[in-house]
Structure formats: structure tokens, C-alpha cells
Amino acid sequence: MGRAVFITLGCKLSFAESSAWAREFAAAGYEIVTEGEEADIYVVNTCSVTSNADKKGRNLISRLHRRFPGARIVVAGCQAQLKAEEMAAMEGVWAVVGSQYKGDLYAIATADTPGRKVFLEPIEESDAYFPAHSSIGRTRAFLKVQDGCDYHCTYCTVPLARGVSRNAPIASIVGQARQIAAAGFKEVVLTGVNTGDFGKSTGESFFGLIKELNEVNGIERYRISSIEPNLLTEEIIDWIAKGTKFLPHFHIPLQSGCDRILAAMHRRYNTGFFRQKIEYIRSRMDNVFFGIDVIAGFPGETDADFNSTYRFLEEIRPAFIHIFPYSRRAGTPAAEMPGQVPESVKKERVKALERLCDNLHGAFCEANRGRCEQVLFESTEKDGKMFGYSRNYIKVERDYDPSLVGRIVDVIL
Ligand code: SF4
């Protein structure tokens, strides 16, 4: 058997899918090596969230082919689905694997003859569910619980690249969580495209899923990677607050703090609803870490609209802001909207939000100073240091001590 490399350009979900492929290759006898090394097969799991991500994918493929001209390059991920022919035309590409064929990637990549080059179905007919999980070090695992999205926000290509909302049954996800526990992991991060939409394709619910996962022995902590505010229900919040393995850490996309822009984005809430949600969570739990996604420079966003977003964030005080300059994606309604914001203005808005994020994050850490928190230490050693995360996602660093790896210990922050 040969050597294979997996390179992921996308999100946690793509990372989980790459790991699932790598395990399949390793089980078949392939040696999995890292990006700079020589290999027979390079699987490039692309991202298409911005035009910059598209460019990165294309540059990486060209670079790989120049450096390892004899190797097979297999392109998967969102760019493979959205730009299959363009990817297939690139030199060195052995196959392009669309969304529906993720489960066949090993067979496609290792076939004796190339057969066809493009494995693609229209996205509306791509409903296969590819189960996946991945890990960071030896303590934290990312478990895919859901794929696709039915929301069609006007800026987003994900429904075009990943298809309809779907999931594996609770029983099979719980089975994967048990495997993860058996491998020694203590913390699991639930990932998906629209995670809270879990259950649509199986007649189950996200609440049902988290209650079952809570019972898996060996896993001591769960985080939800991201959840739409309308799907994080009071029922779920009350249950988490009762003292479950689910941590006081919520990543919730806001995208804009201006109601007019939220409506143009086709988001399913307004700022009043969002504010109430945050207040409700804070009324049930202390010291919650909120990570909030925001898009800067959506078409039609004026200075006044941006200022509304800025003030709204100052008011709700998240611990972190994930900032994305709006990227015009072909095939989305927002790409055709009037009032496209110049790049220079987007840059300024991003910078302003970055400064705000620094202040808010600093204030959150400061407010937690002196509190006793449980920290799960990870296995990575860097410059004699190790790190871990508190329940409410504060990163803690200390001198490396191998006896602490994978242990949850009390720490005064
Ligand atoms: S909910 Fe998220 S994934 Fe779905 S369309 Fe909106 S932004 Fe995209």
C-alpha cells in the first residue's frame, strides 16, 4: 500500500470528514503522512465559503502538482461540488468527488483506472449522509451530527454545496460517541452545518440527541459548535442549565445587529429576539461564553447599519466575535443585490470589530479572574507549555506536566 495525505481547507465539519477518510485509508493499509511529504494520493478537502477560500484551493492543487507531479490529487469538499468542471480541468487532478459521493472517495481515489473524472450529482439530489468524527490531540473530538441546510440565507453557498438538511439516526451517533469515549476522549464538540436542525430526516430532534449523548459513559463534556438562535430553545437551555455535561459555551450566529440587514439576509430572527435569547441564557447560567458570528459589509449595509451592529454587540457583550467580511458568492441572491460595499469599507469595519472583540474578550477573561474553573488539559506540548480550556472556554496555559494530559482539574483562573 502507498502513502496518502489529507489536507483540509474548510470548517470543523470538513475536518471531521477528512479524518473519517484518513481512518478508512489507514485501515486499508495506507500510511497517512503530512502535507509537505511525498505521497501517492493527496486528498484536498476544499472550502468555498469565500472567494479567498476558492483561490486557496486552486493554488494548493497547482502547488501540489508542481511539487509531486506523479501523485494523484483527489478534490473533495464544497468547491468540488460547486466548481467541479473547473477543478477537473486542473493539471494533476485525478478525480473530483461531489457531495453525494463522499462515502465512495476511497474507492475512487484508489481505483486502477481513473474511469470518469467527475463524480457529481445535482445538489438537490445529493442526500447521502457521510458519518464522520475527528480529534484534536487526545482529549477533544469533533463529532458530525448533521449535514446540509434548508434555510437559504441570501449570502450563503452552503445549501448549494452541501445540500438539504439531513442527519444520521440518534442511535448511530450515540454509537460513534461510545467509540470516541473508548478511544479515551473526554470532550466532544457536536458539529454540523445547521446543527440545531438535527432530526429532520429521521423524525428525531436535537433535544432528543443531546439527552441521549449526555448518557454516554466516559464523555464528560459536550460543546455545540454552532447553533441558530431560533433552534436553541428554552427547553434546551433549561435542560443544559440543570447541570448536564453540556457546557456554558454557546456559539450563535448573529450576522448583523441591524434588523433591516437581517431581513435582507433572510435570517429567521430580529435583534429583539436575539437579545432576549442571550438574556434568557444568562438568567439560567452564570459566566457563559458567547461566541457570535458577524458579517461585515453585507450589500446595502450603510455606516449607520454597521454602527447599529457595533452598538448591539457592545450591549450583548459576547466573549468573542467571529468576524467575516461579506464575500460575494456566485449563485446566491445577495451577489446580485445593489449596494455592494467596497472592499476598503469592509476592511475598516472588520478592523473596528476586531478591536471590539479584543476588548470584549479581555473583559470576559478579567471578569473570570480568580474564579475556580475545571480545565481539561490537552496533549499538545509547545515550548514547554501545555494548555486546556475551562468549561466556559477560557484558554489556560501552564508548564507542561504529562500527568495532567486528558485530566479535568480545578484551576484558579
Ligand atoms: S443557516 Fe447557516 S448554513 Fe444555512 S443558509 Fe443560513 S448561513 Fe448558510
Word description of this protein:
With 413 residues, the chain is an alpha/beta fold. It has 4 domains: 3-125, Rossmann fold; 129-225, Transcription Regulator spoIIAA (2-Layer Sandwich); 250-368, 2-Layer Sandwich (Transcription Regulator spoIIAA), CATH 3.30.750.200; 372-412. Helices cover 35% and strands 22% of the residues. It has 13 helices and 17 strands. Strands 7-8-9-10-11-12-13 form a 7-stranded mixed sheet. It has a 6-stranded parallel sheet with strand order 2-1-3-4-5-6, sandwiched between helices. Strand 7 (133-136) and strand 8 form a beta hairpin. Helix 7 (170-182) runs parallel beside helix 8 (206-213). The mean pLDDT is 95. The structure holds iron/sulfur cluster. Residues 149, 151-153, 156, 158-159, 193-194, 228 line the site of iron/sulfur cluster (SF4). Iron/sulfur cluster (SF4) binds next to helix 6.
Average pLDDT confidence is 95
Bound molecule kinds, no repeats: iron/sulfur cluster
Report the β-strand fraction as a percent range: 15-25%
Q: Helix content range of the residues, please?
A: 25-40%
The CATH superfamily of the largest domain appears as Methylthiotransferase, N-terminal domain
**What is the end-to-end distance?**
49 Å
Judged by helices, strands and strand pairing, the structural class is alpha/beta
Biggest β-sheet, characterized?
7 strands, mixed
For the biggest β-sheet, the strand order reads 7-8-9-10-11-12-13
Count of helical stretches: 13
Question: Into how many domains do the coordinates divide?
Answer: 4
Task: Identify the CATH architecture of the largest domain.
Answer: 3-Layer(aba) Sandwich
Count of beta strands: 17
Query: What Rg is obtained from the alpha carbons, in whole angstroms?
Result: 22 Å
CATH topology of the largest domain: Rossmann fold
Instruction: Summarize the helix and strand pattern as letters.
Output: EHEEHEHHEHEEEHHEHEHEHHEHEHEEEE
CATH class of the largest domain: Alpha Beta
Low-confidence stretches are none
